[in-house]
Structure to design on (397 residues):
């Protein structure tokens, strides 16, 4: 059965088509600069990667092109072969603790939740609506970034603000990157070969979050009400003292919106290093002994160490494994080494050789044999999680 896995943003749409349940990727690609000039799309198929320029007026046009490409490349003979489409939806609020088949009510709820994710939910819905129009017979499934974290208890997700803010306006920790945390924690449990496991998942990419997962259920996670909380990220500040906001607003005459943009897009590694939000650029500067790059790097590592140590202590050290994933976690051995070295007092120990060898999509153990806790690198695969849920739910229809 053919299943499409879709991740639609405001100006991009990523797709992957699977043969399920084999989980074989048949074709994948992305549309970029939707609604803008110089729009283009790339497709990976049969080991080839092609890039084409196209006028991508809206998401509907992308779906049109995507389907033509599927037919032209003979991935499908007819549209009826696409039985189900799974969509990544950023915010499911506290309404959804798992993926669901999309109907009118679900669309309405996702729309209502847009106040919590004004940039993401409307963009995700554009993708949903475009596919519903073009392939009305396919089952459409919503897979929420927040759903996996809905198992957090009140004493984890509440902030110490008036309770009324939570009750009336939904101010609480939601957590994000749920599909990734779920994928990696499930894989980690397989690797440690235990039915019940306590694991820490470090998803460190341009955005980053760390989760504590017990028996497959999220206990706590570093992102909060928005993805801007937790560890330092490429351009997001992570946890800060909120009082900075009114202080800097007054001092510089900035509006709340302007500060919000700065804390999301001009802070984190970019803000502290004044070089880039991309760790590769910062690494280049570190190699040249750029002091500010080195400082930014330490600050970043500190924020990761703090979360791992906190979760470790909270479970009295009963952690079965930890895993690194996403752009930095999978490809930057020196970050993993610095983090693990800092945790040596807890019995963590890196195997330098193994650690240096695991990059670019490889999975494996990077800790030493005498490390108290095994440390793995597990390349994340949010798309396959979407395809799995979509396949499962469409078979229940
Ligand atoms: P997101 O999905 O949050 O946009 P990714 O998980 O794709 O991010 O991670 C992208 C980031 O990973 C890049 O911005 C870069 O900082 C980092 N990255 C990718 N490759 C490397 C590498 N070889 N060394 C260091 N950092 C890398």
């Amino acid at each position: 059965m053919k299943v499409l896995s879709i991740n639609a943003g405001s100006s991009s749409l990523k797709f992957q088509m699977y043969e399920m349940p084999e989980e074989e990727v048949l074709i994948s690609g992305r549309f970029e600069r939707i609604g803008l000039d110089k729009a283009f799309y790339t497709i990976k198929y049969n080991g080839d990667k092609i890039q084409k320029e196209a006028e991508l007026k809206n998401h509907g046009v992308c779906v049109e092109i995507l389907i033509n490409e599927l037919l032209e490349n003979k991935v499908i003979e007819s549209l009826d072969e696409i039985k189900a489409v799974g969509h990544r939806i950023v915010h499911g609020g506290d309404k959804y603790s798992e993926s669901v088949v999309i109907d009118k009510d679900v669309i309405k709820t996702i729309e209502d939740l847009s106040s919590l994710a004004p940039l993401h939910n409307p963009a995700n819905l554009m993708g949903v609506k475009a596919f519903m129009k073009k392939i009305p017979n396919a089952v459409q499934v919503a897979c929420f970034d927040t759903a996996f974290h809905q198992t957090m208890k009140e004493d984890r997700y509440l902030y110490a603000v008036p309770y009324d803010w939570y009750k009336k306006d939904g101010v609480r920790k939601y957590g994000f990157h749920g599909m990734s945390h779920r994928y990696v924690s499930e894989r980690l449990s397989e690797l440690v070969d235990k039915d019940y496991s306590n694991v820490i998942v470090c998803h460190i990419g341009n955005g980053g979050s760390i989760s504590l997962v017990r028996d497959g259920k999220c206990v706590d996670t570093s992102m909060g009400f928005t993805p801007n909380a937790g560890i330092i990220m490429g351009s997001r500040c992570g946890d800060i003292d909120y009082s900075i906001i009114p202080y800097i607003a007054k001092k510089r005459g900035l509006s709340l919106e302007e500060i919000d943009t700065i804390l999301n897009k001009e802070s984190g590694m970019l803000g502290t290093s004044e070089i880039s939000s991309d760790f590769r650029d910062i690494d280049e500067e570190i190699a040249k002994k750029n002091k500010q790059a080195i400082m930014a790097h330490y600050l970043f590592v500190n924020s990761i160490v703090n979360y791992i140590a906190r979760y470790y202590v909270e479970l009295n050290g009963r952690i079965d494994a930890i895993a690194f994933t996403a752009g930095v976690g999978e490809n930057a051995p020196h970050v993993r080494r610095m983090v693990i070295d800092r945790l040596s007092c807890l019995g963590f120990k890196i195997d330098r050789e193994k650690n240096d060898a695991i990059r670019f999509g490889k999975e494996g153990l990077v800790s030493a044999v005498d490390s108290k806790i095994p440390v793995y690198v597990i390349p994340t695969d949010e798309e396959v999680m979407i395809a799995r849920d979509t396949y499962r739910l469409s078979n229940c229809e």
